[in-house]
Every structure is written in C-alpha cells, then in structure tokens.
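Hey forum,

I'm writing up a methods section and want to include a predicted complex as supplementary material. The small molecule is pyridoxal-5'-phosphate. I've pasted the protein sequence and the SMILES. Can someone with a working setup run it? I'll credit the forum in the acknowledgements.
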Amino acid sequence: MIMSIKQNVQQISQRIEKVNKEAMLVAVTKYVGQQEIRELLEAGISHFGENRVPSLLEKQSLLKDVSQSIQWHFIGNLQTRAVKDVINQIDYLHSLDRLKLAKEIQKRANHPIKCFLQVNVSGEESKSGIQPAQIDEIIDQMSAFDKIHIIGLMTMAPIDATDSELHQYFVELKSLQEKIAAKKIPNAPCTELSMGMSRDYLIALEEGATFVRIGTALYQ
Ligand SMILES: *Cc1c(COP(=O)(O)O)cnc(C)c1O
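Reply by user p_vandermeer:
Happy to help. Structure tokens for the complex are below, copy them as they are.
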C-alpha cells in the first residue's frame, strides 16, 4: 500500500519521538518537487534538506510564498566556488569537511552559519569527511572564523553496513562529539549529532542522533 506523505510523516515522527522527543526530522527533498514540499509543510515539517546547489535555489524560488516557514539544510558535498551562491540562502550546513571551505564561508557569509563537521568514521575511501584523527586540528584552525558556528558532527554510514557496524559508527561519532563539546570552544559548542537516514535512523537515534536526515521513507 502506498501511503500519503502525511501518513509517512506521522508514522516516522512517532517512531522518532519514542526514542528522542527533541530530535529534529530534516526532510530530504532531493527526490521531489515543490508540490511534495508543500505537502510536507502541511504535515508539519519545517526543516528541509537538499544536496545540490541548483536544485536548492530553484526550489527556493518556487517556494517564496512560504519561505518564512522553512529552514533550509544543505547536506551535500559543497564546492568551494559554489559557496557564494548558496551560503546566505541556508540555515544549516551538514557537510563542512575542509578548511578551504570554511575560509570561503568566512569570506562570503553575512551571518554565522550553523555547521556540522562531516566526519568519515567508517574509513571508507569513497566517503567525504574529515578523518577522526584530524578533527582537533581542523577545529583549532577554524576557531578564528566568526561565521562558522560548529553546532555538531555529521556522518553518513556506508550503504552496506550491518546493524552492528552502524551502532559502532554512530557510537564513535557521539564519543568524538562529546570530546569536542567538553572543550567549550566558543565557536564550536558541538552539542548536536546529524546521523541517520531512511534505512538507519532508528539505530542512529538510539545512539544519540539529534538530527535525522530522511528522504526515501517519506515518499514510499
Ligand atoms: C539523500 C541523502 C539523505 C537521505 O537519504 P534517504 O536514504 O533517502 O533517507 C541523507 N543525507 C544525505 C547527505 C543525503 O545525500
């Protein structure tokens, strides 16, 4: 049976609430158009995630009438040269993964951007993200950037990870997050964890996710 977007939102929200009432559902809209986004808004969703700059800008221009109700999250790989087009159009960036990108954001942003440092906890070579051993140095290098506000860490688990591997990756991300939070760095409070997608959001929530990024499961 195909369920409506509204039914999917209700079911997923209930599952999320059972584990963590405070967790934020970010509806990933890269597969859908403005009509589905409007349905999601009516179903009570206000946080939306896109992974490509042109699609984000196009959807924003089609949704001008409801822009006040929307918080945009950029979740994809961000090219340094695209920063100027997008950085002042978004509320959250989930994919801060290199110093060069932070430098460009510092130059182009006209307000502090809520950023997640993307971390490669699985060690998969194809995945973008900072290596865990490099995090401290990179946060230190970013500490002078007042436009970068590191609110947490983000990761993407490998597509073929087993449940027990998923638990392991998410536990590791949480432990990295807690170590940074304990340092009380002014521009890196690092209290949040962006982890979990359609396939693995319940496991991520069990391990402490505060933001889950869900696409596919909303449209099935
Ligand atoms: C597409 C995407 C998601 C959502 O994935 P689903 O499996 O469709 O829920 C989450 N995070 C990132 C970074 C994505 O690119």
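Some notes you might quote in the supplement: The beta strands are 24-28, 47-50, 71-74, 92-96, 113-118, 148-154, 192-194, 211-214. The radius of gyration is 17 Å.
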